[in-house]
Amino acid sequence: MLSRRGLWVNLVLLALLAAAATAALGLGNVSLSPAEVWAALRGEAPPLHRLVVHELRLQRVLAGMATGAAFALAGCLMQTLAGNRLATPGIIGIDNAATAFAVASVVGLVTSLAPSAMSLVGAVTATVLVFGLAGGSGTRGYRFIIVGLGVGAIAGAVTQLMLSRVAIDQANVAFPWTVGSLNARSPEATALLGAGLLLGLVLALRLARALQVLQLSEPVGIGLGLNLKRVRGQCLALSVGLTGLAVAVAGPVGLVSLLGPEIARMLCRHRGVPLLASALAGALLMLLADLAGRLVLAPLEIPVGIVTAVVGSPYLLWMLLNPSFRSRP
């Protein structure tokens, strides 16, 4: 059944996302009005305006929307799979492992594969390690989260070790991957993420009904004819793939995967799985965080990963201290 409130929430989030994108394209050292931004997008503006919009800001805005949506959608899937609001790809170490492998590619260690490919390898590696070390608990319970925290800490330490052992120029190139940044993102990586996000969103929406059943107890799901093993495998694969592609573009901006689904649930207020609302909320959050990072201390730029950490960390601590938020999503 279609939730009427959920439909309105998605429409409102889409409108807010369009407004945020327009603001991100128009605000900066060269400020443009919304009308001038849209004229530049249509190719009907002066050359300077077209240069600012198309060459300097559009790619960044597209990368922000795609990465935010991918992180939040991956977080919603992982939370539903684990039955725990704290179980996001960033918290269980997938982000850090994907970053470590991407940094290894950037600094030329071990392999020369592209960062996008290496980040996917890192995400898969972290997932295998977490599942293996969690033992029989699978994705259920806090053992899964604690093991993920350990794997993420090790991956973070490996990243810092690699950066400390390479030349300063290589370390400077790789540094944005460690904090999360949308500055000068590769159009090819963004296009790959966009294609992966579109495919992932379609597949996730096809799993929406099964994901709602997954929120119930295992006997109920089996009694309803749900193949739990297959659904969990598909859900996990989508979450890992989206996280790896997003890290390949923006680096570890993991708290978006926590905040996006939380915003969607708060707005939708129903017991379903707000997949599309989570993606839209994540995209909006990433754009606003990047815009704040560009403008608050201009001309000094704050990486988007630092902005989301400042905003999201207090909320994460509140969730940890509030027993009512440690329940199933």
UniProtKB/TrEMBL annotation:
A single GO BP: siderophore-iron import into cell
TM region positions: 63-82, 94-114, 120-137, 144-168, 188-208, 236-260, 272-292, 304-321
Single GO MF annotation: transmembrane transporter activity
GO CC, any one term: plasma membrane
UniProt membrane topology term: Multi-pass membrane protein
Primary location: membrane
UniProt-listed Pfam families: FecCD (PF01032)
Keyword terms, alphabetized: Cell membrane, Membrane, Transmembrane, Transmembrane helix, Transport
Transmembrane keyword on record: yes
Family: Belongs to the binding-protein-dependent transport system permease family. FecCD subfamily.
Name of this chain's protein: ABC transporter permease
